[in-house]
């Protein structure tokens, strides 16, 4: 069977590898002209890593991942330690250690494993035609390609998502999550945070955090609650961050000083999409951000896309009633869980970003002297129902 995948991100390439491993002829198209992922890094929690293990990439992903052994919360203004605990229970209960990884490194790995000859960049999808047996994709340069199936992994502004919606359905719109995220990479420094810890400074509904990734680097990010559409000039560099965090703790000042805007500094307004149920139409389906655009507040966006790839692969390995039927079964495996993760991320964003100050103050207070049990429970709770666990649940620590 020939498969067209639109989108060469984490979801599209992992789905392509999964279908290749089943013997299908897969080709990937993407409108980007080179591998320049949005965002510096991402969290691969145990469910996401397990999918990559299943795709045969376990050793390579472990080499890309940072040694994130602990979690630390600090008061953003004073630097006082609120709590400091081991993440080992996540590994023990789920059966896999989580890894933060540089997004570009993971993207390059997935593209190389799929095969660069099968990935065509600079191809913007503008139309889809479906005659019941063949799907034809039309691109902005006038070229077309036809296949037995098309998978839309074309991101938050997906064209394929619009195609699969029912006739006359209201348009699916992205919704602003209420804050801007600024992220990048800096060298590891103990004056910012312990080299083996995910360290987060919190105050006033804002966050400044670092995670270790391979190459003695920290992935950093700042969250700033603010309206969407504010003017932004990249030439300003770290000046907006200094304005928002200039009176924060010494570790945050060290982080600000370490940022090289010319090398690694990204600004992203955070938007998501209210969960919806229609992911397929005939021989066309969606996955990743096209299907469940999620805010990063629980670190499950990329992991959820990887779960899509796993479910798609399992569906085509085990069902034999035709492409359209198998795609519906894939969607049935994913719609409810993916939507629930979107809702959990929204709830978490509300708690952490002071949209209700009393709620956020209560969260800050709960962090003081916490032993990590509740936080670990929440992290594991996002993982335990993953399809990659095959219903196996968790093992007690």
TrEMBL record:
Family the entry assigns: Belongs to the FAD-dependent urate hydroxylase family.
GO molecular function, one term: FAD-dependent urate hydroxylase activity
SUPFAM superfamilies, per database record: FAD/NAD(P)-binding domain
One example of a Gene Ontology biological process annotation: purine nucleobase metabolic process
Cofactor(s) in the UniProt record: FAD
EC number per UniProt: 1.14.13.113
Domain FAD-binding span(s) in chain numbering: 2-345
Full protein name: FAD-dependent urate hydroxylase
Domain of life: Bacteria
Native organism: Microbacterium laevaniformans
Keywords recorded for this protein, A-Z: FAD, Flavoprotein, Monooxygenase, NAD, Oxidoreductase, Purine metabolism
Catalytic activity reported: urate + NADH + O2 + H(+) = 5-hydroxyisourate + NAD(+) + H2O
Pathway this chain belongs to: Purine metabolism; urate degradation
């Amino acid at each position: 069977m020939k498969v067209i995948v639109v989108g060469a991100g984490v979801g599209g390439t992992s789905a392509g590898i999964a279908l290749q491993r089943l013997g299908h002829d897969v080709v990937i198209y993407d409108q980007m002209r080179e591998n320049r992922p949005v965002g510096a890094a991402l969290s691969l929690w145990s469910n996401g890593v397990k999918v990559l293990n299943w795709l045969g990439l376990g050793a390579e992903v472990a080499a890309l991942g940072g040694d994130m052994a602990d979690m630390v919360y600090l008061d953003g203004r004073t630097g006082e330690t609120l709590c400091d605990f081991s993440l080992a229970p996540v590994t023990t209960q789920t059966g896999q250690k989580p890894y933060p990884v540089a997004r570009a490194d993971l993207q390059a790995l997935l593209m190389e494993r799929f095969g660069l000859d099968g990935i065509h960049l600079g191809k913007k999808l503008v139309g889809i035609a479906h005659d019941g047996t063949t799907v034809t994709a039309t691109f902005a340069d006038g070229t077309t390609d036809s296949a037995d199936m098309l998978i839309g992994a074309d991101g938050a502004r997906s064209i394929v998502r619009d195609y699969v919606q029912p006739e006359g359905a209201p348009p699916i719109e992205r919704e602003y999550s209420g804050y801007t995220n600024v992220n990048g990479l800096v060298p590891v420094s103990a004056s910012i945070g312990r080299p083996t810890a995910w360290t987060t400074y919190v105050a006033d509904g804002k966050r400044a955090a670092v995670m270790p990734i391979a190459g003695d680097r920290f992935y950093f990010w700042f969250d700033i609650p603010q309206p969407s559409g504010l003017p932004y000039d990249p030439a300003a560099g770290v000046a907006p961050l200094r304005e928002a965090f200039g009176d924060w703790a010494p570790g945050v000042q060290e982080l600000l000083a370490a940022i090289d805007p010319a090398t690694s500094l990204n600004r992203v307004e955070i938007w998501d999409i209210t969960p919806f149920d229609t992911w397929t139409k005939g021989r066309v389906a969606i996955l990743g951000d096209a299907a469940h655009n999620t805010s990063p507040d629980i670190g499950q966006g990329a992991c959820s896309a990887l779960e899509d790839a796993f479910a798609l692969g399992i569906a085509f390995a085990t069902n034999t009633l035709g492409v359209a039927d198998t795609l519906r079964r894939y969607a049935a495996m994913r719609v409810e869980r993916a939507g629930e993760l979107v809702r959990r991320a929204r709830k978490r964003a509300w708690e952490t970003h002071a949209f209700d100050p009393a709620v956020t103050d209560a969260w800050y207070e709960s962090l003081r002297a916490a032993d990590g049990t509740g936080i670990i429970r929440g992290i594991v709770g996002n993982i335990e129902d993953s399809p990659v666990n095959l219903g196996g649940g968790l093992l007690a620590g």
